[in-house]
């Protein structure tokens, strides 16, 4: 079972690579997305999913990430055939193969309990996403992919150094070092403190780079700006959540060592900094996709901030990870549709989207309200939980800053989104490449329905999973 | 045994300075290749007994970091037809001074970290940190895409040295995975380098400046 979860998408990747027809290949992706849903559901329901001598263990935290990334991937997979049909030129072989392989290694990340394997999967995901960013083969996407590769690789290298430091912290105590999570947690109380501290900082910076926390976020606006909408979704909802999971694994070890308080401080600092950077750059942002990238920086900040605040903030952060991932799907998929309907993603050209691409514009607008934390959508609930936890924990300054940034970002993002959807569509600089279709709009509506559901009612199994996961992180 | 390893680590440190001080890309690549070869030997010495796995890891390290990847880079260099300078954003002398400063800080920092008994007096940790720093310096201060890749390679070498302190903890599979990832990463970067050359008729990454806020 544990094997099956990540081997199936990788096998589909091989199939997609072998299939000669562009049309069939796109449907292979859609089919793989649908197959993965029952597989993941089965795995999440079974109490023990293990394999490879304890290298693969699907725990509550892993189940949480696996669950929502699988749903997100299924939505993206359903979007792919309609999207690729609109791309007249080019071969989709690399694209489909890379999408599926990326999802395979993302699944591996959610279930591995070996930090070395987690690292290998993270690096592999970076490499699989590089060709996705370069899909359009323009000079701009070339620049984006170069920055993505270099910044990402450095981050990943630092994370590996952090892993080694962790191992050394155990070695120093005279115990048998192992990078297996259960062993690390068992040995945590005996670890050398200085090595553990250094390890956590390196892991936070390294995986934080992949997550896109400020000030290591520099690749993000470029990469998301040039990536196709569906790739943006996979990055902003999938890859970043995988990186967040890696940080949570490091945090788990710190908590087990009784160093939770040490780890929380830099997380709060990075979290607030990410929100501030996002707030500054989102104001008067003309590029829709870059704006979404900064929104991603903001929400990654909220995630680590929630963990840093602790208590109920952990529950809030985990719930927010799910909410953010699903809402990012709504936003990126609809932004991609609008981009193609106008052959531009700048607010200079894109106006009156409610007339030209009504469904996508509606989705973008609803997604904007959801992501900025307006009720009745899911992110409202999770952000509220985090703010509440900050007040309960007497962190008034943090709570005040958090609220301030939320307002600034609401205004900044709102001005861009509203100028896109409202008004009269003007003349276009280039002929648009496509119109809306059911297949490119429906996935967004499915995701939006889920985000709405999470804001009104959290299903009991999800709540149990969230509580169990929060408990492993020293929260409630 | 440890003494030989330590003298080799000093060679690694000197190669860092060489990489930062050289003005030719070819020299830079050769320097990193030499570093890879030395690291392969150090990897062999770091295991206390000679078995099949240590030998294999050392051989793979040596051939990847010392031969295969530098060959790939040299070929990329030939394909894009540049022979000229490394073109640093900061001069070579300041680079060297920064490297010296970084090495000093690395030594200080590693003194603050307590070492296990087996590693007392060993140069593994300071060399690792200093090499990571030198790699980072190369990566951030060089304009040519190939020089940046070499910077990444040197940075990875530094991380690899730290990994040598844990030869017993690291399962074979992970070690191989790390090396494979490195190879593929450089390969992908090589492909992108070719595209950069084709699109911009240059490898100067300062031309990659269309995307900004």
Give descriptors for this structure.
heterodimer, A: mainly alpha, 2 strands, B: mainly alpha
Structural account:
Chain A is mainly α and 476 residues long. Chain A has a domain at 263-476. Chain A is built from 19 helices and two strands. Chain A has a two-stranded antiparallel ribbon with strand order 1-2. In chain A, a hairpin with a 4-residue loop joins strand 1 (50-51) and strand 2 (56-57). In chain A, helix 2 packs antiparallel against helix 3, helix 4 packs antiparallel against helix 5 and helix 8 (193-211) packs parallel to helix 11. Chain B is an all-alpha fold and 213 residues long. Chain B has one domain. Chain B has helices at 2-21, 25-46, 52-80, 92-112, 124-141, 145-163, 172-200. In chain B, helix 4 (92-112) runs antiparallel to helix 5 and helix 5 runs antiparallel to helix 6 (145-163). Chain B is globular, with a radius of gyration of 17 Å. The model of chain B has no long low-confidence stretch (mean pLDDT 85). At the A-B interface, helix 5, helix 6, helix 8 and helix 9 of A face helix 5, helix 6 and helix 7 of B.
